[in-house]
Amino acid sequence: MKQDIKQVVSTLQQGGVVVLPTDTVYGLAVVPTDATAVKKIYTLKERPMSMFLPIMVAHIGQLEELGVDINEPARKLLKSSLVPGGITFVLGFRPEAKKPEWLATRDEIAVRIPDNAFLLEVLEQTWPLLITSANKHGSTHIPNTVVDILAELHGNPDYIVEGGKGKDLPSTIINCRYTPPLIERLGVIPEETITTILNGN
């Protein structure tokens, strides 16, 4: 696995797209500062370039460095047992924050800290990464094996990490810019679990 981490990091830093397992579904990963790599991931998924891609980081410190506004509900969830894990946060930016250039056109980001030791090690070395589900845009089918993924994508990624059978459900998305926070997609984390944490002291 160490060799795989080295190869994944090298491929990403050279502008490649990597298919790799996460703690939920398989993902396609690229370095966000490489415009050519970012365009390729859109091509592979046949996703409109107008639709932004989600982000993954290794820990809350990396998240804060992006200039995001971590309000009280987001902080509660980030400090809970759900993180790292299958919960994606939609967050805005602090008014005074100096955003990285690749985030200049964004008012918000969807970001997750995955519960996967391999991926966390990659993120420690490359952070942050754009990582999106490894399936065709708009498809209701989420392929959970490498064979199925390659059959669905429009082209070939530059490197593949074989992680066995992935899960069938993606992360749960919660938009913390709303009061109260709004669950925009139900996934591996049930709504009741999130509500209990948000309502706790």
The global form is globular
SS elements, strand count: 9
CATH architecture title: Alpha-Beta Complex
Structural class by secondary-structure content = alpha/beta
The CATH superfamily is identified as: DHBP synthase
Give me the strand/helix succession.
HEEHEHHEEHEHEEEH
Keywords:
single chain, 201 residues, alpha/beta, DHBP synthase, nine-stranded mixed β-sheet, 7 helices, 9 strands, 16% strand, globular
Describe the structure.
There is one protein chain. By secondary structure, the chain is of the alpha/beta class. It has one domain (2-199): DHBP synthase, CATH 3.90.870. It contains 7 helices and 9 strands. It has helices spanning 2-13, 35-45, 60-64, 72-78, 117-126, 146-152, 191-199; strands at 18-20, 27-30, 55-56, 87-91, 109-112, 129-133, 159-160, 172-175, 182-185. Helix 1 (2-13) packs parallel to helix 5. The protein starts with a helix and ends with a helix.
Describe the secondary-structure layout.
Blueprint: H1 2-13, E1 18-20, E2 27-30, H2 35-45, E3 55-56, H3 60-64, H4 72-78, E4 87-91, E5 109-112, H5 117-126, E6 129-133, H6 146-152, E7 159-160, E8 172-175, E9 182-185, H7 191-199
Parallel strand pairs: 1-7, 3-5, 4-8
Antiparallel strand pairs: 1-2, 2-6, 3-6, 4-5, 8-9
Helix pairs in contact: 1-5
Q: How is this structure best summarized?
A:
With 201 residues, this protein is α/β, with parallel strands linked by helices. The chain has helices at residues 2-13, 35-45, 60-64, 72-78, 117-126, 146-152, 191-199; strands spanning 18-20, 27-30, 55-56, 87-91, 109-112, 129-133, 159-160, 172-175, 182-185.
